[in-house]
Amino acid sequence: MNTAVARWCVLIPCLNEEAAIQSVVESVLALGAPVIVIDDGSDDRTPEIVAALPVTLLRHEERCGKGEALRRGFREALRQGYDAVLTMDGDGQHLASDIPRIVAAAAQYPGHIVIGARLLDREQQPKGRRRANAVADWGISWACAQPIADTQSGQRWYPRAALDLVDLPAENFVFEAAILIAASREKGLGVVSVPIASRYHGAFRPSHLKPVRDVTRITTYTIGRVLHYGHIVASHRRSRTAPLIVDDGTTG
Fold first, then answer.
1. Residue 203 — very low, low, confident or very high, per pLDDT cuts 50/70/90?
2. For residue 204, what pLDDT is reported?
3. Strand locations in 81-132 (E)
4. CB contact burial 54-64 (16+ within 10 A = b; e otherwise)
5. CB 162 within 8 A of CB 186
6. Strands 56-59 and 156-159: what pairing?
7. pLDDT in tens, 2-15
8. What does the alpha-carbon distance between residue 89 and residue 83 come to, in Å, rounded to a whole number?
């Protein structure tokens, strides 16, 4: 796949994804993109399946959480000389067919994080999840002092400046919020969203996110960041403008 952007790879953190991981990885490889998979201590056939594919496989002997899986993947990407990574989950909810649109947006908006935002077919989202995501978007956008559509999506393009935040002291699902906030406030990166479909129906395994525990952790961290950076009213005002969305009219 020819692009005008920096050298990049696809990064897939996974945990017990034997049902979907082969098709997910093979669909990315079909685009000609290099792949790094971080297995976070799976106890099913996930590492065995991935080991048979032409990718870089890193393994945690014990479960360390999504944040540490992403952190290790960032470090490996930097070690291999990549200047950007595109992350996606291994359960099949993110499609490789959306990658070219995300990469095109990255080329159009250098110096931005690009999010594959689940703005299409939103009626598929469970109502509770939709409400929780809306609250997260509101709070994290405030902490970022810029509007962000779908702060909870795991399909993202991270440029080099964001990868340099690899050592942020945040764990598990908080790490993804922390990257958005620090990249916005400390690196001056913008955030642009590319609409993708919401995919909740079908044979997807239950989310590893624990609603009460993980939402509480994300909320506590976000409130702390809002207070840390100050200019609370001005930050909130900037976060309430329209998010930057790039839509070429096609979806995967």
1. low
2. 54
3. 84-87, 112-120
4. ebbbbebeebb
5. no
6. unpaired
7. 446 689 999 999 99
8. 20
Residue type, 18: E
Element (H, E) at 8: strand 8-14
* 156 CA to centre of own chain: 4
Q: What is the pTM of this model?
A: 0.91
Mean pLDDT over the full length of the chain:
90
Q: With 80 as the cut, is the pLDDT of residue 212 above it?
A: no
Long-range residue pairs from 68-73, CB within 8 A, at least 24 positions apart, any chain:
68/40, 68/171, 68/175, 69/13, 69/14, 69/15, 69/38, 69/40, 70/11, 70/13, 70/38, 70/175, 70/176, 71/166, 71/167, 71/175, 72/38, 73/11, 73/13, 73/36, 73/38
Do residues 20 and 38 touch, judged by C-beta distance below 8 A?
no
Burial 130-160, CB ≥16 within 10 A → b, else e: eebbeebbbbbbbbbbbbbbbbbbbbbbbbb
Residue 119 and residue 113: Cα distance in Å, rounded?
Answer: 17
Once rounded to an integer, what is the mean pLDDT over residues 131-150? 92
